[in-house]
Each structure stands twice: as C-alpha cells, then as structure tokens.
Amino acid sequence: KPTGGGNTASADPGPSDPMLPESLDKNAVMNVVRKNAGSIQGCKSAQPDASGTVMVAIAISGSSAVSSASAGGAFKGTPLGSCEEGKVRAFRGAQFSGAPMKVNLPFAL
Q1: How many C-beta atoms surround the C-beta of residue 4 within 10 A?
Q2: How far apart are the first and last CA of the chain?
Q3: Where are the alpha helices (DSSP H) in the chain?
Q4: Would you give the distance in Å from CA 72 to the centre of its chain?
Q5: Burial level of 90, CB count in 10 A (0-12/13-18/19+)?
Q6: Please, are residues 104 and 55 in contact by the beta-carbon 8 Å criterion?
Q7: DSSP-assigned beta bridge partners for residue 71
Q8: Burial class, 108, CB count within 10 angstroms (exposed 0-12 / middle 13-18 / buried 19+)
Q9: Model confidence over 41-90: pLDDT tens digits?
Q10: 33-69 burial by CB neighbour count: b if 16+ within 10 A, else e?
Q11: Does the global pTM surpass 0.85?
C-alpha cells in the first residue's frame, strides 16, 4: 500500500536507528532556533512597522525537517507571517526516532 500525504505521523515515522533519541528535548529544539534565528530577522522588512511577537506553530519530523510552519495571531496571513513560516521551514536539527513533534515558537520583532 503506498504511503504519503495525509497524516504526517504515518508519512514520516522518523529514522529507525536505535541509537537516536525518541524525541528532542527543549534544549535541542532551542539550539536549532538559536542557530537559525538570524535568518528570521530579514522578515521584518516585509512589515517594517510591525512590533510584538510572532508565534509560529511547527511540526518537526524525525528526519529533522520542519514539515509545517504556521504563523498565528495578528501575523497570520500577513507578509511578515508568511516570511517567517518560510524561514522556519528551512530549519534543520537533530534526528530522532519517534513520531513528529509539534512545537510553538515565539519570535520577537
């Protein structure tokens, strides 16, 4: 039976290496955010007058790819929110063996 599409959890259950952790801890996620946060700064030019915090809901697959990113609140559907979603989708971190993780990340403007 072909797989793919639909439910992200069944589409990418994560690498099967028994040496990988089941999931990423908060420190591992924050290390990826800190490493890549500079790429977000350019998004401010999409809405120079914007201020506050952009909350981005992300799903991270076991292969370390961000499979989805969605800005929320006042920035949902705005040029700034769309820019941040695209930048966050490019983040890569450590691999893990468990099901995809969902994380909400705040980015200050």
Answers
A1: 8
A2: 46
A3: 8-11, 26-36, 38-41, 79-89
A4: 13
A5: exposed
A6: yes
A7: 56
A8: exposed
A9: 899 999 999 999 999 999 999 998 999 999 999 999 999 999 999 999 99
A10: beebbeebeebeeeeeebeeebbbebbbbbebbbebb
A11: no
Pick the closest to residue 43 from 69, 7, 12 (CA basis): 69
CA distance 108 to 55: 9
Given a contact cutoff of 8 angstroms between Cβ atoms, the answer to whether 98 and 73 are in contact is no
H helix or E strand, kind and range, residue 3? none
Query: Letter for the amino acid at 24?
Result: L
Which residue in this structure is represented by tokens 């500079």?
38
- The residue behind tokens 């370390």 is 64
Burial class, 85, CB count within 10 angstroms (exposed 0-12 / middle 13-18 / buried 19+): buried
Contacts of 31 (CB under 8 A, 6+ apart): 93
pLDDT tens for 4-21 read 444 444 445 556 678 899
